[in-house]
Specification:
10 strands
């Protein structure tokens, strides 16, 4: 039987026992949280050095350092969506950004590791921008016939889109134009120097490289109308259903004087990971992506469009279970 020492009242003794029980329960409750704190190193595959993916990744890394202090994030440049997906699917990277159409094509082609790819968040839309030198007199995609055209790097989502748009417009991407494999880091200079007549780019608005080009060289945005989007849906297969008609605002680039919005094609960007990645890490990563929207959005304008209400729609990828856990935790 429990005996109270003569100098301690029974009430004080019971209070002490209760306190120990509470402390024990608190320690039990907190211990799993400490153990679940993610740690280690992860690789985030981004994009070309002057593109939105790279800038977004650089700023996100700063917020991850605050929110996940025991996780070291290594950023790796890439050619774009297609290379990004291959890296994550084969274990060469842990997180990346890729367009929904590139994901669907990767799955359709049954590329290595495609079944393990998972979504964390829908981020923002990329807008296809067909940039032409004003002096080239190009007013439509059909006007690219016989021209020198930048079509993106080999592993990029731009390359995939450029080929599909040219095909939808009735042009053979290899025969009817002179394709130049280059990225947004070099295409503006090639246009200025006369080595390109036009180039395709797919990115958030505004894209810094295009904005800077417009400040020193006369260029125009070539319209991609709704009829072209319909042809894309017909000719591009199942993955083309992720394209939608959109408009580039007339004032998106101050030096490109458009009297009205320019019709174009848009496609969603997804934050992508793999099912082998620790759920606690994915949950923390996803939380930071949503929390950092406003801060990053001040410097990378497309990031302002990251929205908790739409972030869960990561088709054609299922949500990673760590991302599911985050969204469930913030569900009203």
């Amino acid at each position: 039987m429990f005996t109270v020492p003569p100098r301690i009242s029974r009430g004080r003794a019971l209070g002490a026992v209760a306190g120990l029980v509470v402390l024990g329960l608190l320690a039990w409750w907190l211990a799993p949280l400490r153990a679940a704190t993610p740690s280690g190193s992860v690789t985030f595959s981004t994009g070309v050095t002057t593109g939105v993916y790279q800038r977004y990744g650089t700023l996100l890394k700063e917020d991850l350092a605050r929110d996940l202090p025991r996780v070291s994030v290594d950023l790796r440049d890439s050619e774009g969506s297609q290379q990004n997906l291959a890296r994550v699917a084969t274990g060469d990277a842990d997180f990346t950004i890729a367009t929904a159409d590139a994901v669907a094509k990767y799955q359709k082609d049954r590329r290595p590791g495609a079944d393990g790819l998972r979504g964390c968040a829908r981020l923002y839309d990329d807008y296809v921008q067909l940039i032409a030198a004003k002096s080239a007199g190009i007013s439509s995609v059909a006007g690219l016939r016989g021209k020198k055209v930048g079509v993106g790097q080999e592993g990029s989502g731009v390359r995939l889109l450029a080929e599909r748009i040219l095909t939808a417009a009735g042009l053979d991407p290899d025969q009817d134009v002179s394709p130049v494999l280059a990225g947004i880091d070099t295409m503006p200079r090639l246009l200025e120097e006369g080595d390109l007549d036009a180039f395709f780019w797919s990115g958030g608005l505004p894209t810094t490289a295009v904005e800077k080009l417009s400040e020193r060289y006369d260029i125009r945005l070539v319209p991609l109308d709704a009829a072209l989007v319909e042809k894309l849906h017909t000719s591009g297969g199942a993955s083309a259903r992720y394209y939608r008609s959109a408009e580039i605002p007339a004032d998106a680039y101050g030096k490109i004087r458009n009297s009205a919005p320019v019709p174009t094609v848009a496609v969603a960007n997804l934050l992508v990971t793999d099912d082998r990645i620790d759920p606690d890490l994915v949950e923390g990563f996803t939380r930071t992506v949503i929390k950092s929207r406003d801060r990053i959005g001040h410097q990378v304008h497309p990031a302002q469009l990251v929205d908790l209400r739409t972030a869960i729609y990561t088709a054609p990828l299922p949500l990673h279970k760590g991302a599911q856990r985050y969204y469930q935790s913030v569900k009203p």
